[in-house]
Amino acid sequence: MTLPIDPETENPPQPIGIPQTNVLFADLPIPEPIIRAINDLGYAHCTPVQAKSLPETLHGRDVAGQAQTGTGKTAAFLITIFKELLETERVHPTAPRAVVIAPTRELAIQIADDADDIGRYCDFRTVAVFGGMDWEKQARLLEGTVDVLVGTPGRMMDYMRRNMLDLRRVQVVVIDEADRMFDMGFVADIQFILSHCAKDRQTMLFSATLSYEVMRLAHIYMRDPVEIKIEPEQVTARNVEQALYHVPQREKLPLLLWLLEDVRPKRCLVFINTKRAGEWLQFKLYHNGWDSEYISGDIPQKKRIRLVDDFKAGKIEVLVATDVAARGLHVDDVDLVVNFDVPQDAEDYVHRVGRTGRAGQKGRAATLADESQVEFLAPIEKYIGAKIPSVIPTPDMALDDLSPSFRETVLKHRPKKPAGRRR
């Protein structure tokens, strides 16, 4: 289907995703086991943040990098960590050799999963610790040999204060999404952890913005850090088709149902701004024949992990989510992202839309804006440096391709299941 573009929109689509550079991983001083894992994952060229940071970090330099989630920074610091661990000897039988501090459990889990992928030929053990899960079970994980520890500040501090976690022999420390941890009130926690780490270490810090507070932390706890900036326009790619629909609130659900029927995604992420809206929307999608679930920060951690795993496995077609799923959620083959609500923060738009079109694949992203949310669009378009192409939703928009029952659902807002979809 060709989307009807508003003639007043002058700029062509400027999609969000992960661009690549002409810098090859194979041309960098990366050990063979890591290169083999990168090849297995289907990557050959570096993203901008990797191309700028790896030449510094692979030679032991401290780096403070400005980069958003979804730009490839996780792979950049994990490659650096595994290179360091491969080329040095363990000096303590069990103590962690590398530490990654993350703001949320979702991001900690994702980083640990990525570590398993990138370090698959390195024979290193990665352990993740975070709140919301069994304290004693995670404590037992620390009793064995730990090479890479990924954790949230609170849970890490808890084990440190009980003398169950010793970071005095850490060789590499990574602070991921530093600005978000500042916003969440973790500054003192980060300072506590860093003050208990080995003095002679390599430190990497990544943040969506390198504010005064973030850089102050960098200069206190890092050694002459190299500052790297990946501007927002540098994280846009050409493999995600964006579309903006101006619709009244009451027409959002029928439009979403039409989009789902038109695209027929194997996996679709639908973002909303409030818990109440998420629960309502998941109910409506389910009763319109879509295998859907809802995820937010209020859902127990075990269930959230199960839902994400089911979504990755294709057992869930549509995952309705608050922004808890926008950051740190890496799921390949997400065909469609829908902003059912326009995000109030411009960075959240980048994070949400960045969930599709990953690993060089094509993706689609639709934003449904009612009158109350139009004011959020200008900051988003300024941030990404482009106009989001406006689509005029008209009653005859490809409806001839739909079944009569589903056309009736779209036009009259009746919650009937589309023809051909059965539970």
CATH topology of the largest domain: Rossmann fold
User: What proportion strand?
Assistant: 5-15%
Overall structural class, as computed from helix and strand content, comes to alpha/beta
| Unreliable parts | 1-17, 233-237, 395-403, 412-423
Q: What's the pLDDT, averaged over the residues? A: 83
- The global form is globular
**Full CATH superfamily name of the largest domain:** P-loop containing nucleotide triphosphate hydrolases
Q: Order of SSEs, N→C?
A: HHEHEHEHEHEHHEHEEHEHEHEEHEHEH
The CATH class of the largest domain: Alpha Beta
Description:
This protein has two domains: about 210 residues, 3-Layer(aba) Sandwich (Rossmann fold); about 180 residues, Rossmann fold (3-Layer(aba) Sandwich), CATH 3.40.50.300. Helix content is about 35%, strand content about 15%. The protein has 15 helices and 14 strands. Helix 5 links the parallel strand 3 and strand 4. Helix 6 packs across helix 8, helix 10 packs antiparallel against helix 15 and helix 13 crosses helix 14. The radius of gyration is 22 Å and the shape is globular.
